[in-house]
Specification:
This protein has 246 residues and is an alpha/beta fold. The protein folds into two domains: 1-84 and 231-246, 2-Layer Sandwich (Nucleotidyltransferase, domain 5); 86-229, Nucleotidyltransferase, domain 5 (2-Layer Sandwich), CATH 3.30.420.40. It is 42% helix and 22% strand. The protein has helices spanning 35-43, 58-64, 72-83, 123-132, 137-144, 158-170, 175-197, 213-223, 236-245, and strands at residues 2-8, 12-19, 22-30, 50-55, 68-69, 89-93, 98-103, 109-115, 203-206. The protein has a five-stranded mixed beta sheet. It has a four-stranded mixed beta sheet with strand order 8-7-6-9. Helix 5 crosses helix 7. The chain is globular and about 60 Å long.
């Protein structure tokens, strides 16, 4: 039996293919301005007995080619539990939202909290701040790890924070301190969200922002524990969707 999981996010689209319950292939592409065209490209020359979609574009996918849909919360619960059966808490920081999920027995979702009212504390926030400092995301993360000093960023609104960063640069504040302050601010928001569902070991860090070593290090220091990060944290939702198809 061949099943597929499609996670249509705001920044990327991930496809996971399972054959007889084992991972056969996975692929991640940019969402772009035409997510359905990107989905069709991913699905070309592939046939599934069942295709399940999740993410922001799941209902549009169901109207066109998906057999069914599941929520991102359930998909991430299934995906993280598959990789780490001891997982009890999940932090997912994606392009446009942040999710904290508490798992019960068997990987079932017990509770969750989302911060999706704006892009504050998400991958998009980091992208905008990096652009304000004329840096790539990788460069900003590396700079943030070069210092223990930080400058407080008072606003987490993406628009206001961008203006604040521009002002800090004009005042001659070293860029590593600004980068560190931005990462600390995101860490604060993520930890607060986690505490609302309860932090219970093991804790999995998923989503595209989990690839950021600076934020991972800050979170581990703040929580006082090591985070588990999948080899490719961007495909966890797609894996969960595929597992639900079984």
């Amino acid at each position: 039996m061949s099943v597929g999981g499609l996670d249509i996010g705001s920044r990327t689209i991930a496809l996971m293919e399972l054959e007889q319950g084992a991972i056969r292939s996975s692929e991640v592409v940019e969402t772009t301005f035409d997510p359905m065209a990107q989905c069709q490209m991913l699905l070309a020359d592939r046939e599934f007995d069942v295709l399940v979609a999740t993410g922001y574009g799941r209902h549009l996918a169901q109207a066109n080619f998906a057999d069914s849909v599941i929520t991102e919360i359930k998909a991430f619960g299934l995906g993280c539990y598959h990789y780490f059966p001891g997982c009890r808490t999940i932090l997912d920081i994606g392009g446009q939202d942040t999710k904290a999920i508490s798992l019960g027995t068997g990987g079932k979702v017990a509770d969750f909290q989302m911060n999706d009212r704006c892009a504050a504390g998400t991958g998009k926030f980091l992208e905008v701040m990096a652009a304000a400092m004329e840096l790539s995301l990788e460069e900003m993360g590396s700079l943030a790890m070069q210092t223990q000093s930080e400058v407080k960023v008072s606003s987490m609104c993406t628009v206001f924070a961008e203006s604040e960063v521009t002002g800090l640069i004009a005042r001659g504040i070293p860029r590593p301190e600004i980068a560190r302050g931005l990462h600390e601010a995101i860490c604060d928001r993520a930890v607060a969200l986690l505490k609302r569902v309860g932090v219970e070991r093991e804790v999995v860090f998923a989503g595209g922002v989990a690839r950021n070593p600076c934020l991972r290090s800050l979170l581990e220091d703040r929580l006082g524990l090591s985070l588990l990060v999948p080899e490719n944290p961007q495909i966890v939702g797609a894996l969960g969707a595929a597992l639900s198809a079984l």
